[in-house]
Specification:
This protein is mostly helical. It folds into two domains: 137 residues, no CATH class; 94 residues, no CATH class. It contains 14 helices and no strands. Helix 8 packs across helix 10, helix 10 runs parallel beside helix 13 and helix 11 packs across helix 14. The protein starts with 7 loop residues before the first helix and ends in an 8-residue tail after the last helix.
Length: 242
């Protein structure tokens, strides 16, 4: 896969051109037509899963995490894609604005610049790819099972992916935190933080941001798993006792 990026200015101009010519997609080099087709297939696949399964109630969350999971798997198989590329906001702007703006618009509408280009942490592709990366449990199936947790919501993605500490993101700690969160019994979540199941997770992520300033999870007694459990304990949930 050829890696291309867009600056904020280039993305803004390209976005304006696309909206003006909507519903026509932007012209791109023939090298990128397969990429466009593949991402559209992923989108259609996930939307068909939702359409054909009435048991899926949190449709927005399901679309985000399932699309993110398939996007993660797809991009990681492409030659030239790497973690360095994933950390480049310009790459996600390129996918969002020039390759498949129709896919992003189907989720967020075409008048929502933040999910296309203007706010890196809100760029839809970037957000869901990093959500999957930070939740990764070793393979696609295990990660899918984790992220299908019945009380995960779009707020889970927001609170997880956007709360990085001043010292960056400790990947293994994040993976343990999300795994711990999925293991909390739902009745415990309701009792501990009221009606909003994401309240507990928000508290834990705030505690993590503060604790990261003085504690290295890899040096914590018991490692990243014990560190993650300590955050929940500080939030009033003893995972070893549930």
């Amino acid at each position: 896969m050829i890696i291309k990026t867009l600056t904020r200015g280039q993305a803004q101009e390209a976005m304006q051109n696309w909206v003006t010519n909507f519903p026509n997609l932007p012209d791109v080099d023939s090298d990128f037509l397969q990429l466009r087709a593949d991402l559209q297939v992923i989108n259609n696949t996930v939307r068909e899963e939702i359409k054909n399964n009435p048991k899926i109630k949190r449709t927005d969350y399901y679309l985000d995490y399932r699309f993110g999971l398939l996007l993660y798997d797809y991009l990681n198989k492409q030659q030239g894609f790497s973690l360095r590329v994933a950390a480049n906001d310009g790459f996600w702007r390129f996918l969002s604005v020039l390759i498949v703006p129709d896919v992003v618009a189907q989720r967020w509408g075409k008048d929502n610049d933040s999910h296309f280009w203007s706010q890196p942490t809100r760029n839809w592709f970037r957000s869901i790819w990093w959500f999957v990366y930070l939740s990764w449990q070793g393979d696609l199936e295990s990660t899918d099972r984790l992220l299908s947790c019945p009380y995960f919501t779009t707020d889970t993605i927001l609170n997880f992916e956007e709360r990085t500490g001043r010292k960056g993101t400790h990947v293994e700690a994040y993976r343990e935190i999300i795994k711990c969160y999925a293991s909390v019994p739902k009745d415990v979540i309701k009792k501990s933080r009221g009606k909003n199941s994401d309240d507990l997770f928000r508290v834990v992520m705030k505690l993590n941001t503060a604790k990261m300033l003085v504690v290295d999870p890899s040096l914590y007694l018991g490692g990243a798993e014990a560190y993650a459990k300590s955050l929940f304990c500080d939030a009033g949930v003893d995972l070893d006792a549930t």
